[in-house]
């Protein structure tokens, strides 16, 4: 076969699978592309998806790498991250309100709302107080900010963790996204994912990334694929709000805290199944169903784009391999891809970290120090009683509190595990794991990475997921416990 000319390749929009199919490679070029795809995708699979055990601890290699840097720099790393948050808060006021419209700072901050700089400032205040508190014995921060149930949870576990997740993830993402692996998976799973969840088969990669690494990593991958015109606005929003589930490692911590460690397999996989059932309904109701099928570059997705791929047929496996080879052959060098990915990662990091600090700690303060969620929780008591969920009155406040932080519902019952019915503990744990949308992490990352979704839509999606989850989890509770 003759290879398509370089000019023709450069003129093709390769985010469109149909255009990728138009490329014809000679045998040598095909072999080169396939070899690149196999090598780089294998590296990505090893880093993101293969569990390993080091020093008696099991995790994916990605987790070990970012935790290595997190632990290596320790308190110095905390100071660096605090410095980034403080610098972002200061510069944001200039960029939003004073910078010239053709300047870099205006381009970076001009799209933010008027409230964003004030949130960045609040995040900086929280970060500085916490960092001083843990660095100097002479300085004692107020417990409402630095306590273990507020800043002591958000700063070290979430803000610092996400800082390294972004950097390490940005380095390795090109191996996963740029050399055909995702095209192969997408081609194979399209006939299932498209009709059932109305998203491309590629979205399975995002779901897997969240299960084995982190929900933040899954959202960042989704954002990257949206901005490179792989997903439409509707698809990106669905994937971020429905497939960015809690990782297996964090799920284990949640399940153990609820006193259900010996039932982990049962709890986790039932939650896994329920999350996908919820998604089946979510994609068919507003606001997700009303999102436009328009790519980031303005191209409208056609019916052929959606339906043409969504069927099992002879040669589907071969088509996936062909697309992987062509994607890898036409991709830039790995060094160029890593450089571009790191630039993207560092460009979103200051905003993400600032908002995680501000919104995460504020959300936990509201949950821990005000009756807000306890009052809202009373609304759910009649429904829980109707569904015969044990200890309904005691666990009802845990239902709405998940929007602040995914771990909070279980923390609210952690001191009662000996007296609460096992069914009640399962209910709290499973609901919290399938809600997915919470302020301390996923909501912030979605907004900071400019995914095409508004805050009110995320709140509505949280409520919808919760209301759909309650009867499903109650049914599973009665079956399993």
From TrEMBL:
<feature type="transmembrane region" description="Helical">
    <location>
        <begin position="352"/>
        <end position="375"/>
    </location>
</feature>
<feature type="transmembrane region" description="Helical">
    <location>
        <begin position="267"/>
        <end position="285"/>
    </location>
</feature>
<keyword id="KW-0812">Transmembrane</keyword>
<feature type="transmembrane region" description="Helical">
    <location>
        <begin position="395"/>
        <end position="414"/>
    </location>
</feature>
<feature type="transmembrane region" description="Helical">
    <location>
        <begin position="144"/>
        <end position="166"/>
    </location>
</feature>
<feature type="transmembrane region" description="Helical">
    <location>
        <begin position="76"/>
        <end position="94"/>
    </location>
</feature>
<feature type="transmembrane region" description="Helical">
    <location>
        <begin position="455"/>
        <end position="480"/>
    </location>
</feature>
<keyword id="KW-1133">Transmembrane helix</keyword>
<feature type="transmembrane region" description="Helical">
    <location>
        <begin position="208"/>
        <end position="226"/>
    </location>
</feature>
<feature type="transmembrane region" description="Helical">
    <location>
        <begin position="114"/>
        <end position="132"/>
    </location>
</feature>
<feature type="transmembrane region" description="Helical">
    <location>
        <begin position="426"/>
        <end position="449"/>
    </location>
</feature>
<keyword id="KW-0472">Membrane</keyword>
<dbReference type="Pfam" id="PF07670">
    <property type="entry name" value="Gate"/>
</dbReference>
<feature type="transmembrane region" description="Helical">
    <location>
        <begin position="238"/>
        <end position="255"/>
    </location>
</feature>
<feature type="transmembrane region" description="Helical">
    <location>
        <begin position="171"/>
        <end position="188"/>
    </location>
</feature>
<dbReference type="InterPro" id="IPR011642">
    <property type="entry name" value="Gate_dom"/>
</dbReference>
<feature type="transmembrane region" description="Helical">
    <location>
        <begin position="37"/>
        <end position="56"/>
    </location>
</feature>
<protein>
    <submittedName>
        <fullName>Transporter</fullName>
    </submittedName>
</protein>
<feature type="domain" description="Nucleoside transporter/FeoB GTPase Gate">
    <location>
        <begin position="161"/>
        <end position="259"/>
    </location>
</feature>
């Amino acid at each position: 076969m003759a290879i398509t000319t370089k000019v023709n390749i450069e003129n093709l929009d390769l985010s469109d699978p149909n255009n990728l199919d138009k490329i014809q490679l000679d045998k040598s070029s095909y072999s080169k592309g396939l070899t690149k795809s196999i090598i780089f995708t294998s590296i990505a699979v090893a880093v993101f998806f293969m569990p390993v055990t080091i020093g008696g601890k099991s995790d994916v290699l990605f987790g070990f790498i970012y935790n290595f840097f997190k632990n290596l720099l320790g308190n110095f790393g905390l100071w660096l991250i605090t410095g980034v948050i403080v610098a972002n808060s200061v510069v944001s006021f200039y960029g939003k309100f004073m910078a010239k419209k053709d300047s870099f700072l205006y381009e970076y901050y001009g799209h933010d709302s008027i409230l964003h700089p004030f949130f960045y400032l609040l995040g900086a205040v929280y970060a500085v107080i916490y960092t001083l508190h843990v660095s100097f014995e002479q300085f004692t921060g107020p417990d409402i900010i630095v306590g273990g149930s507020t800043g002591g949870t958000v700063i070290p576990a979430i803000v610092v963790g996400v800082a390294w997740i972004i950097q390490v993830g940005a380095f390795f993402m090109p191996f996963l996204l740029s050399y055909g692996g995702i095209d192969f998976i997408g081609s194979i799973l399209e006939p299932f994912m498209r009709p059932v969840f109305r998203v491309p088969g590629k979205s399975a990669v995002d779901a897997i990334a969240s299960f084995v690494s982190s929900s933040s990593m899954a959202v960042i991958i989704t954002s990257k694929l949206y901005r490179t015109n792989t997903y439409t606005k509707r698809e990106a929003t669905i994937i971020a709000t429905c497939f960015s589930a809690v990782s297996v490692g964090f799920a284990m911590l949640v399940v153990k805290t609820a006193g259900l460690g010996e039932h982990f397999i049962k709890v986790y996989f039932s939650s896994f199944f329920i999350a996908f059932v919820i998604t089946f309904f979510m994609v068919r109701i507003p606001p997700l169903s009303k999102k436009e099928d328009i790519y980031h570059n303005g191209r409208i997705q056609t019916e052929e784009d959606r339906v043409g791929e969504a069927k099992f047929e002879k040669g589907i496996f071969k088509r996936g391999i062909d697309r992987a080879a062509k994607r890898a052959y036409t991709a830039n060098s790995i060094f160029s891809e890593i450089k571009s990915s790191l630039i993207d990662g560092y460009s979103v990091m200051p905003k993400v970290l600032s908002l995680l600090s501000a919104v995460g700690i504020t959300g936990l303060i509201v949950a821990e120090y005000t009756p807000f969620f306890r009052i809202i929780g009373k609304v759910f008591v009649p429904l829980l009683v109707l569904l015969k969920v044990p200890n309904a009155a005691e666990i009802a406040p845990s239902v709405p509190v998940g929007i602040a932080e995914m771990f909070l519902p279980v923390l609210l019952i952690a001191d009662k595990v000996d007296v609460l019915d096992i069914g009640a503990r399962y209910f709290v744990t499973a609901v919290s794991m399938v809600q997915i949308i919470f302020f301390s992490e996923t909501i912030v990352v979605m907004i900071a990475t400019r995914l095409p979704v508004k805050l009110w839509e995320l709140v509505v999606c949280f409520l919808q997921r919760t209301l759909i989850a309650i009867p499903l989890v109650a049914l599973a509770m009665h079956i399993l416990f």
